[in-house]
Amino acid sequence: MRKIYVVGIGPGEYRKMTLEAAEILKDCDVIVGYTVYVDLVKEHFPGKEFLTTPMRREEERCRMAFEEAEKGKTAAMICSGDAGVYGMAGLMMEIGKSYPDIQVEVVPGVTAAIGGAAILGAPLIHDFAVISLSDLLTPWETIERRLRGAAMADFVLCIYNPSSKKRKDHLKKACEIVLEYKSKDTVCGIVSNIGRDGESCQILTLEALKEKETDMFTTVFIGNSQTREIDGKMVTPRGYVYERR
Amino acid sequence: MRKIYVVGIGPGEYRKMTLEAAEILKDCDVIVGYTVYVDLVKEHFPGKEFLTTPMRREEERCRMAFEEAEKGKTAAMICSGDAGVYGMAGLMMEIGKSYPDIQVEVVPGVTAAIGGAAILGAPLIHDFAVISLSDLLTPWETIERRLRGAAMADFVLCIYNPSSKKRKDHLKKACEIVLEYKSKDTVCGIVSNIGRDGESCQILTLEALKEKETDMFTTVFIGNSQTREIDGKMVTPRGYVYERR
């Protein structure tokens, strides 16, 4: 059976891609993706055929990849981070129903939660919830319910899409909800441009996070009740039975 | 400043390691880790010095790595999956307080949630919560509270350590709690031995999952209300505003 690959390229930096992803992109005939992601990998795969569509044209992008596969080419659809976390893996499988002789294979990658956590220290050592604040495809009520459920149960929260040009106040609204359950001194962290030019991070309290302006290239972490700052790093202990050393 | 690396090696298969992780392990002087993980990577780094400790000897293992760094060697502590998700990154930073002239750098990797999701299809496309059922360091009440919070808010759940030799009924108990909030027909998936010999996966209902025997090498996925089975794959749609194509 013919295969089509959906490949997570990691946060951006070439070295943060898996060996498998690099191998598949090297061996395939055509790489399909959102323009920004194609630009991130282009220099590492010289002479390769690239096909791009702009943002929001996801369905078109997926069909483009399947059409290439139909022609007999090995096609790889790339996503930043991991293709399975707010990525194209699901849509590829839905659209794949129309191409029954092509098998979709997902190639995992380092998503922003994992890549960002490594930069901040070790915030996700214990149970955590990943929530996107984008209300393009999800009603805000559902997002709010998720924030409440996660905050109430003392999860560490990792927030994707904390704001965009159109939605400036989503992070503030989210923090206000979380503040109903978590202390204002909760240790939080933000990371911007993970594995790309201008990478930066900051540790701050939940109260300070509420007033923070972020953009689409920022990932936000809100600690649990045990999360601490240790030597400038955000660290969540492994267990709730606090071990003393 | 001298550096010590905490490296996520991914699920097990060498190709699922990042280029960065492979590079660091190739260039370092000594690789420290739990015996099982060292055995997974050993053949790929011939001639390298390896130091191991058995399970549960985590603190000793960390100190061992720092002692090597103190001697002037470049040391890498390896963890399966990602070092920042139920891994050693946090403990390394806590113990690092006693070694102020050594900087801990976390090298991200593909954790079981990401690696397992890729095998099952695309279960984590939307908001998800990661919960460990191990009550070694966490009281069961906290685990139960997390399960309730996540199930109530219709997160996709990804469960680590669903059971062990001593804790045979944890997954059953967890499913019973989740069944208070989610339908018995909720699409679930289990993956065993991700990226290792004997890798296998299965899609089943929440009701069937409750009766399933699992082990420490299994990762469990419980869908949200929108998760579907498409051609034998577990797929969560990207949004809650169901788009029709």
- With helices defined by DSSP (H or I, 4 residues minimum), what is the helix count of chain A? 8
Topology, number of strands of chain A: 13
Estimate what percentage of residues of chain A fall within beta strands.
25-35%
Structural class assignment of chain A: alpha/beta
Strand order of the largest sheet of chain A: 3-2-4-1-5
Fraction of residues in helix of chain A: 25-40%
Major sheet summary line of chain A: 5 strands, parallel
Largest interface: A-B, 79 and 79 residues
- Indicate the radius of gyration of chain A in whole angstroms: 19 Å
> What's the overall geometry of chain A?
elongated
Oligomer: homodimer
User: Gap between N and C termini of chain A, in Å?
Assistant: 55 Å
The low-confidence runs of chain A, each spanning 5 or more residues with pLDDT under 50, are none
Integer average pLDDT of chain A: 94
Which H/E pattern describes the elements of chain A?
A: EHEHEHEHEHEEHEHEEHEEE
InterPro entries (chains A, B): 4pyrrol_Mease (IPR000878), 4pyrrol_Methylase_sf (IPR035996), 4pyrrole_Mease_sub1 (IPR014777), 4pyrrole_Mease_sub2 (IPR014776), Cbl_synth_CobJ/CibH_dom (IPR006363), Precorrin_MeTrfase (IPR051810)
Protein name (chains A, B): Precorrin-3B C(17)-methyltransferase
GO molecular function (chains A, B): precorrin-3B C17-methyltransferase activity
EC number (chains A, B): 2.1.1.131
